[in-house]
Amino acid sequence: MSAFVVIDTETTWRDDVMSMGAVIADSRDFSVIDSKYYLIDPAYRHGGMYSDVLRMRGTPRAIISPRHKMAADMKLWLDKYRVTTIYAYNALFDKKHLPEFGEYRWYDIMKIAAYKQFNNKIPTAAQCCKTGRLKSNYGVESIYRMLSGDCSYMEKHNGWYDAVDELKIMELLEQPIEIYERARI
To answer: pTM for the full model?
Structure first.
């Protein structure tokens, strides 16, 4: 079995990572294999725009850990599943904030989801650049709504929930995992 991980981070007012959600999925059918949710100590105590949703109902029990221990634990976990690739929506943001994971191959879900060549749910009347990328409204919330048809969907800004939702975007795009080679960063 080939597996990959989808991650999402949330940051403090000082731009430090305060939480991270991670979901390991099967690359054949995008089904969830395992997941983890970290609160980075002491950063999560400093507060950020989304501090109020750090402990949302339904999230797995958070692993509260200093950053270096989170990175070590996460790498052991990824090794257990033989994961060498990380996917994220707007992956440049997460990769910049997680230099500890620089040895992994990173892929940007947005670079597939925002392009009419890969997202058949983009309306023909939508304004796109010459490259095929939407000119606007290609964030997680807009793309999830477009793909799922759920106009009431709201991004939670909780690292675990958002990682799950970003994986769902990959599933709804109905593209094989190989297409993401075009989105490697």
So the answer is: 0.96
